[in-house]
Amino acid sequence: MKIMKGLLWAALTLSICAGFALLYLLQPAGKLEQFSAWQYSTKTANANLKVHYFGVSTLLFDDGENQILIDGFFSRPSLAQVMWNKLDSQPALLHKLIQQHQLQRTRAILITHSHYDHTLDLPFLAQQLKHSQIIGSESSLNIARGAAIPESRLSLVNPAQPIQIGKFKITAIPSQHTPATAVNNDLGEQIQQPLSLPARFYEFKEGGSFDYYIQHPEQNILVKASTGAISKQLQHLQVDTLFLGIAQLSKQSVAFQQHYLDETVETLRPRVVIPIHWDNFFQPLARPLEFLPRIADHSPRSLQRLIDYAEQQSTQVILLNSNTPYPLAPMLQPTS
Ligand SMILES: [Zn+2]
């Protein structure tokens, strides 16, 4: 009887400890306020070219005339939904965003790779934004094909062929995905056939990764969504503002981190670097962006690593939240 009682107590204590450990791991890895000095908060974005950040690597560039959208992920299902359910867009939310940001002016949707946190809303957006061309890997195009988007609006990404959209000239650059994790081990795999939503997260195969180099009379920009760099790939680019993915950066070896930052921040020497893919994408957009839970990443460490590196070479780091458009006008940028 005494042994039974002892065992029960041990089991109870263990479960309570496991519960607390899980709670701890589900908390954000740090507070965004720690980085308030780097946050952009000016509400008046007085520039011809602006960017609106929607978390992960969804970025809307708008020069008042045309818009281009990098990736399409606004619906942000919760961790429980991602683990247990099929995923789909939230039409009400998207209709609201389309109106609020006048997304009917979107002329192109450029996809960095096909994981759901970059493409979940691509089918819905492609259906609604009828003037937009969809550009991405064969896998990304297969996500659009799942929603019966006409072939005339689908363009396979072609690094040798820049695309001119109004004043935007966009070149795709082959890139590398963030190193694989246990739940993210499909790198190089393709979506072979049209993928209809709803679908489970693992059906969104990576399908190859691309950076986008955006030249505009106001500024030259590079968007690098994933934490992976091909050596010497970026050395001939002229970049004013670099949008740099830092997902999982602090979890990599010191040598990897050094190589990644050398090949991006050091090679490009942009005036400004804006970290992306640091936010908890299991939270809805209605809430201010926050860091990922500890169980998924240690984003504050990655951000600090980037800040230390960038500031050594006088590149300014600016942290964007999802409710403030950021001006990309040369005269508003600090000079180094
Ligand atoms: Zn990915």
UniProtKB/TrEMBL annotation:
<dbReference type="Pfam" id="PF12706">
    <property type="entry name" value="Lactamase_B_2"/>
</dbReference>
<dbReference type="InterPro" id="IPR050114">
    <property type="entry name" value="UPF0173_UPF0282_UlaG_hydrolase"/>
</dbReference>
<protein>
    <submittedName>
        <fullName>MBL fold metallo-hydrolase</fullName>
    </submittedName>
</protein>
<dbReference type="InterPro" id="IPR001279">
    <property type="entry name" value="Metallo-B-lactamas"/>
</dbReference>
<feature type="domain" description="Metallo-beta-lactamase">
    <location>
        <begin position="55"/>
        <end position="246"/>
    </location>
</feature>
<dbReference type="InterPro" id="IPR036866">
    <property type="entry name" value="RibonucZ/Hydroxyglut_hydro"/>
</dbReference>
